[in-house]
Write a structure and sequence with these properties.
Elements: H1 2-13, H2 16-50, H3 56-78, H4 91-114, H5 126-155, H6 177-188, E1 199-207, E2 221-223, E3 228-237, E4 243-253, E5 260-268, E6 273-277, E7 281-282, E8 288-296, E9 304-312
Parallel strand pairs: 2-9
Antiparallel strand pairs: 1-3, 3-6, 3-7, 4-5, 4-8, 8-9
């Protein structure tokens, strides 16, 4: 009886109705992924048309989105549960998604590199970037061929399903070496994509905090008596690049004593702000200070500074008790 059941199972798994179900089931799962890939193709086409006029944030965000979406589509394709259509009919579909993912990743790396990355430091070789872009285009053309081959092979299976068409390259000339070189030159020369380093010190707070009513433009800030003064400096990035090596420092000058310097490092994203907590300054109650605050990026470009006067209040001495007190 066990032998009979096994033979029956094998016959069922190799029957025409079984494979028709498998073929059509695969197509039902793969179809939406082909449509998702088509949406990525539309994003890429729009990006290529408008990239030289984009700002840096939009430029890099679009490349990130393309890379993430193509990688997700490939992962979902690989996650389709077997059995797959017979005779390797689905192999071209997986190859197409893999090639698209690799092409977008290569394009992203080349274009980000030639613009100096998100920190805007340095810049890549334009010729190398153009070559990488042309290579990505060739890979995308190959991916279109792979998809068309898979689509035809799947239609020839017992289930005869049709997958949606999926084409990324409608004009191979747009990916030629000459076109890629012109595109890279336009991106590198774009004024909206030029790196701008610009910082601003927007606030400085102290611990102890300054006393109410002090710290105007005409009078120094006054803090309660202390021997350790902490400062928190808020820095805004008003430029369009990340500043991963930001150095914030405070130089404290006090009459009669050597200057003190405290500093700390921080990472600041384009368009963002960061509060930097500095090590304490050694101070004496009753002393006055001039504080020079600076925020300097690793490139040295776009640094910001400010200064202000501060007084540490004198310590009070408890008065003597009334005469004759017990």
């Amino acid at each position: 009886m066990a032998l009979a059941v096994g033979v029956a199972g094998q016959v069922e798994a190799t029957s025409g109705s079984y494979w028709r179900t498998v073929d059509r089931g695969f197509a039902a799962l793969a179809g939406p992924l082909a449509q998702a890939s088509g949406r990525s193709a539309a994003v890429l086409s729009s990006f290529l048309a408008g990239a030289p006029g984009m700002d840096r944030e939009t430029f890099f965000a679009t490349l990130d989105r393309l890379a993430a979406d193509t990688a997700t589509t490939l992962r979902r394709f690989a996650g389709i549960v077997p059995p797959w259509p017979g005779h390797g009919a689905a192999a071209g579909c997986v190859a197409a998604m893999d090639e698209r993912g690799r092409a977008v990743a290569s394009l992203r790396q080349a274009l980000e590199g030639v613009l100096g990355g998100r920190s805007g430091t340095g810049g890549g070789d334009e010729a190398a970037a153009a070559g990488a872009m042309a290579g990505a285009g060739a890979t995308l053309v190959s991916a279109d061929v792979s998809w068309a081959s898979c689509r035809l092979a799947l239609h020839r299976t017992p289930g005869h399903p049709w997958l949606p068409a999926s084409v990324w390259v409608t004009d191979p000339g747009a990916w030629s070496a000459a076109s890629a070189g012109a595109f890279v030159a336009a991106v590198v020369g774009s004024p909206t994509l030029a790196a701008v380093h610009r910082l601003s010190v927007t606030a400085v707070s102290t611990e102890p905090p300054s006393l109410a009513g002090t710290g105007s433009s005409q009078a120094p800030a006054v803090v309660a008596p202390t021997t350790a003064l902490r400062l928190v400096v808020v820095v805004d990035d008003e430029g369009n690049v990340d500043e991963p090596g930001l150095v914030v420092s405070v130089v404290a000058d006090s009459p009669g004593g050597p200057p003190q310097t405290v500093r700390a490092t921080a990472a600041l994203g384009a368009g963002g702000a960061v509060a930097v907590d500095l090590p304490p300054l050694r101070v004496t109650p009753g002393s006055s200070l001039t504080l020079q605050v600076s925020a300097v990026p690793a490139t040295g470009q776009g640094a910001a500074s400010t200064s202000f006067a501060l007084v540490v209040a004198a310590a009070t001495t408890p008065g003597a008790g009334p005469a004759g007190a017990a």
